[in-house]
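Entry:
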Amino acid sequence: MKQVKFLDELVSCFEKLPGVGQKTALRYAYYVVEKYNVEDIEKVCNILIETFSKVHKCDICGMITTEDICDICSDSTRDTKKILVVKDPKDLLSIEKAGGYNGKYHVLGGLISAFDGVKPDDLNIEKLENRIQNEKIEEVIIATSLTPAGDITALYIEKVLQQFSDLKISRIGYG
């Protein structure tokens, strides 16, 4: 089936969303064109622009927030001696939703991957080192995925953090 040319750019925008392939993007484009009115489109555009202009990374951990420091970093009831290292904000939110962890977090912003062109310098690792030194962290728990990129990233972080002799470094269990 040949696609309608005037929808190409809209389809291309939807394809950038995670888990959205060409067929789904085309379905979204048709839906928007057929079902949305001008007010709906303006509302979506305004919300996207407003959200994008307000949201940034927490100055401490790298979580997305609208404040300088996120709610988790500013929560005085959390264990300040532990940091759980995660790939991205979505992973942090999943762990928070599950409950059971009451320490601080550190968001890397990705995983080391030669395939994707992500190098260690592209990640938020230097800030992690500074936090360990300045905040007197006793334990770092690495919670990267059980994938080649997750394993490489975890091993790299472990190697970098070996400079802190009193620091306990562990990984979350999988099974």
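DSSP finds six helices and six strands in the chain.
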